[in-house]
């Protein structure tokens, strides 16, 4: 909330780092809103406010379409911190698109991103690395599958329930990757 009591950021952080990130973004939004009110002709400030307002509404997204978000993100003179948020959105969008198609393609899209060097942390890490492993199994790529399986395990290690819940999946994926490595 800002000093007027308006909700400026909606976020349900999973840990302190996520809370700090959201708090800093909300603080930046309030800062840019104040500057934009003083300089209504500044297109970069207006674009930054629009982007952050959109990104900060996890539960009630604004009506901005992807094309509009991309155009706002290309505005010259954006605050570097807004550019960072925009680049994170672009990365998340690319990952979400790949993850949405994974059931249909068996993980091939996720594996392609992985081979291109995409690294994922945060809330998308578990599904991303799971599907990379599935794509590697489908494509008989034991080397990338093994790397992704290790990253899948690492991504889940901070969750208390992960080891117990994922043990069967991990064991099955590890067995399939060993078969592939052995040429079976």
Short description:
By secondary structure, this protein is mainly alpha-helical. 69% of the residues lie in helices and 0% in strands.
In terms of topology, how is this protein built?
Elements: H1 16-38, H2 43-55, H3 66-73, H4 80-105, H5 108-115, H6 125-138, H7 142-156, H8 162-181
Q: What key phrases describe this protein's structure?
A:
single chain; 184 residues; mainly alpha; 8 helices; 0% strand
Outline the structure in words.
The protein is an all-alpha fold and 184 residues long. It has 2 domains: 1-104, no CATH class; 106-184, no CATH class. Helices cover 69% and strands 0% of the residues. The protein contains 8 helices and no strands. It has helices spanning 16-38, 43-55, 66-73, 80-105, 108-115, 125-138, 142-156, 162-181. Helix 5 packs across helix 6 (125-138). The chain is elongated, with a radius of gyration of 20 Å. The termini are far apart.
Strand content: under 5%
- Biggest sheet statistics: none
Q: End-to-end distance, in Å?
A: 58 Å
Per DSSP E runs of 2 or more residues, the count of β-strands stands at: 0
